[in-house]
Design goal:
about 140 residues; alpha/beta; Rossmann fold; 5-stranded parallel beta sheet
Length: about 140
Amino acid sequence: MYQKILVPIDGSEHSKRALHEALNIAKMTAGTISLLNVLNRSLSFNSSNQPNRQDKAQNTTLIEGQKIAQAEGVSVETLQLEGNVIDQIVKTAKEGKFDLIVVGARGLSKLEEIMLGSVSHGVLENSPCPVIVTR
C-alpha cells in the first residue's frame, strides 16, 4: 500500500508529529521513509555562500529525524534541497514515485506562510499522491 513515504521536515512540532505518524504507517506497511528538508534561500538573510545557522539547524533536523526512524526500525533516507518548499516537495514526490506524503499542518516560519501561503495547502493542491496533514 504505502511503501514509499515522503516526510518534509523543518524541526517544528508539527513536522515532528508528521514524522511519528509516518513511522506508524511505515511499520504497518513495511514501508520506507524519505525525510526531506528544503532550504528556501530567498527567505535567508545570509547573502554569502557560507553555511549559516539555518543550514546547520536543518542538517541537525535531518540527522535527528533519521535517528528517530532508525530507532523505530524503519528504513530511512534523507534529502536536502534548495528552492521553493512546495515545488521541491511535489517534484520529489513525482520523481521519486512516492505513495504518500505526510506533512505537518504548520512549519517553523510564520513569515514564509504569510508570504507564500501554507505549505501543507500547496502540497495538497499539487501532490501526485495521497497526502496526510498532521496537527
